Amino acid sequence: MPLQAKIRSFQLRPFLSTDLSFPRAGAIAARHIRAIDGTNGASAQMGFKVANGFSMETSLYPNLLDASGDTLRGTSTYIHGVLNPQAFFVLRNEEASCELERALNKRETLYLEKHKAGSLADLAIDWQRRLTSKLKHLEALETSIGERHAKLDKLYSSWQIQRYTPDGTPDGGPVPAKDYAYKPETHSEYLKNAVVEREGDFPWDSPGAETVSSVITKNKSLPVGTVNIGSHTNINAVTTGAQGEEERKHKHISSPTFNLPTSGLTEAAAAALATLPLPIDDNGAVTPATLALLVSVIGNLKRYVAQESETFYPTNRSTRFNEDARCPWEEELSRWHRELSALEEEIIQQQTYNRRLAELERIWTLELKQMELDAKRAMLAYADSFLTSPIAGTVTHVYKDAGEYVQAGEPIMRVESSDHFLLVGVINCHQPVRLGMVAVVKLLNVLEDGGNIQLKGSVVSIRGHDSDNDEWEVVVELDKVANLLDQIPLNYTFDRGSYQMPEAEMTLT
């Protein structure tokens, strides 16, 4: 039996109403203002009718991971092409675009390295063979290192080391080689640019050179003749100069000719030379016939003079003793342990990888899947910079504009449905009102032109029954009515306390 109810107040509300916002903070880069009829895409202006809501779940997300050659379809260019026509506002997204391209490049690199070449199963078989061979070589190397160490251990056990003092005398008795330790010395010399010239009768180790500005070469011709030795000699020696500093001497005999002197000989050598017939040619050279005899006489010379030029480089010498002592056997032990440790670590790595080869195809597939998920996360972050409406309706509010900074979840604009409505209000009914009841609302003479409106729907919500006056707060979902907003403005309120409503009734069935 139909129930009659009196209407206390009613308001026409949209069935769907959403305040659109970005899921992340950022600066608004663009507010799209397009044709009001929507021919060029969404327009962020009040009164714009959104013909169809845009669902990313059906129109964008399923296609992002589709392969397009070696890469994925969900590039920044693709996402921009799909979302930009549907977007009312766009945040600055250059950084998100870079992160997306980086993720796609990493995924593509992995794909090219491990998946494009061919069958992963065949590759795993080939690697298994090579890895088995490598493990054999590593084990052989481990054996070789151990054998070498054993030989050195045997030698060090039999060796004895004798220490000596700087003057060459033994320093104690021999010590076992394994116990031998020493401090290494480092010697350095710093040359000075100085030149000395020496001339005269002197032995090789004679001291007393003087420093001059240039090299002077003086030739002496002695009446006893010359001997062509036929050699070229460089002699390096260290001597002490006149100033008492160490000098480094570079002696270069510039001619293979030695001049035999008449002085500085032993008495026996001088007497022998005095009695010898020394045939000399026109150039003053001794003839070959007497060469053998002269050679035997030269052996008795104490001093001689040669055509020579000598350069002396005075030096500063330093000797540095290292702080740390050296112990050869202990160093060998350390080297052996390091080699074994590194080798064992490599063997463990190879054995671990050998176990992975059995599941190589699955592991690489999961790695690629992980890369694709990372890429999809970057795709979604880029897509979040576009503000679209998931529902159809009318733009009723715009809160922000281009250039403003917004927080995540901050309302940007509102879209409300324009073909589906609710009546929300208070009624008086002396009998219980139940969900699902069909409600027919008649509004007579409610508008200025005296027109009548009849709305039909069903009760979808009941609240707050007051036993004193039988008031019910109800929500009625109206059946869709074409052009209802042309008759009643959205959010229009009917209130008996403010408006004259002589005839307004509701029938509940």
From TrEMBL:
Q: Which SUPFAM superfamilies match?
A: Single hybrid motif (SSF51230)
Domain of life of the source: Bacteria
Q: From the Swiss-Prot or TrEMBL record, give the protein name.
A: RND efflux pump membrane fusion protein barrel-sandwich domain-containing protein
